[in-house]
Design a protein that fits this description.
Oligomer: single chain
Strand order of the largest sheet: 1-7-6-2-5-3-4
Shape: globular
Number of strands: 7
Largest sheet: 7 strands, mixed
Radius of gyration: 20 Å
């Protein structure tokens, strides 16, 4: 039996764990798991606000020296990520050597946790979807940490974002791009979008790559169900299920050498193939979305 992930009856979200093959605990989660969930949620929120406060207090450093300001931002971002790892029980394994600023790096994308994972490792600047900017608390903080937001429904916005990407690299920062542009359940690496690779291709700038994967402990729901965020389960419900886990493993494998190309489409193909070669598929639950849809399960309405 897979250990229970409880949801309050009467909500649409209750169908998510059941359709994924996770047995729902009708009597509520165990006391220990409930305490762990509430404590972690409160701790993550408190630490995130505190880290942003420290970042704001250090703003005068950037006024005096832009270079020191950038180092301060990176230090705070790494500290935020690494403390967050400990709070939520993320055990991080690193294979290979992370690039040093300035750099452009692409990876696969499977969860909102990818930001805490890569931010804790490198303190880099991220490109994120514009919707994230409107998230309560986290959106404002992400903007304050230098995140570049893009409107993917507006082709013209790509020009603005690519100009910002160029400025980030020219300012000796590191930039992280989730080139699939959306999250997946981690079976394989999806084709990479090409638009944000234009600055690198135009300047023949080396692009680094890495692969991200997650695992959960034996006897608990599979990582594809409670770590990857690839269905339309609301963020809060997903996070609450995740925080019940005693711990989980995150693994990042960095590529050996960056890739250079003067055509963005060719660059995207080479990078995607390189990430796929070092990517370790994420363990799936007993009933994947494809199987659920094929069998017509009415409890699984959350396909993106």
């Amino acid at each position: 039996m897979v250990r229970g992930v409880s949801f309050r009856r009467g909500t649409g979200c209750a169908s998510w764990p059941r359709a994924a093959g996770i047995e729902v605990n009708k009597n509520g989660a165990g006391v220990l798991e409930s305490i762990r969930m509430v404590t972690r949620m409160a701790a993550v929120l408190s630490w995130t606000v505190a880290a942003f406060g420290i970042r704001v207090l250090g703003a005068p450093v950037g006024w005096l020296s832009p270079a020191l300001g950038r180092k301060w931002r990176r230090w705070i971002f790494r500290a935020w990520g690494r403390v967050t790892w400990r709070i939520i029980g993320m055990r991080v394994e690193v294979h290979g050597t992370p690039p040093s600023p300035p750099f452009i790096q692409v990876t696969n994308h499977v969860s909102y946790l990818d930001t805490a994972l890569m931010g804790g490792l490198m303190g880099c600047v991220f490109v994120a979807k514009a919707e994230m900017e409107r998230w309560p608390v986290f959106g404002r903080i992400a903007k304050g940490m230098g995140t570049i937001f893009i409107r993917r429904d507006r082709m013209r916005d790509t020009v603005r974002v690519n100009d910002l990407i160029t400025k980030v690299i020219d300012s000796e920062e590191g930039l992280q791009i989730f080139a699939e542009s959306t999250t997946s359940r981690g079976v394989e690496v999806r084709p990479f979008k090409t638009a944000l690779l234009e600055p690198a291709a135009r300047r023949r700038y080396p692009v680094h790559y890495a692969a991200i994967t997650y695992r959960t402990p034996e006897g608990y729901p599979a990582a594809a169900d409670v770590v990857c965020w690839w269905t339309m389960v609301p963020f809060l419900w997903h996070a609450l299920a995740l925080f019940r886990l005693p711990y989980f493993n995150a693994s990042v494998t960095f590529g050996e050498a960056p890739i250079v190309a003067d055509d963005r489409k060719a660059l995207a193909l080479e990078l995607r193939d390189a990430v796929q070669r070092i990517f370790v598929p994420i363990p799936q639950g007993p009933a994947t979305l494809d199987k659920a849809l094929k069998e017509g399960l009415p409890d699984y309405p959350f396909a993106r």
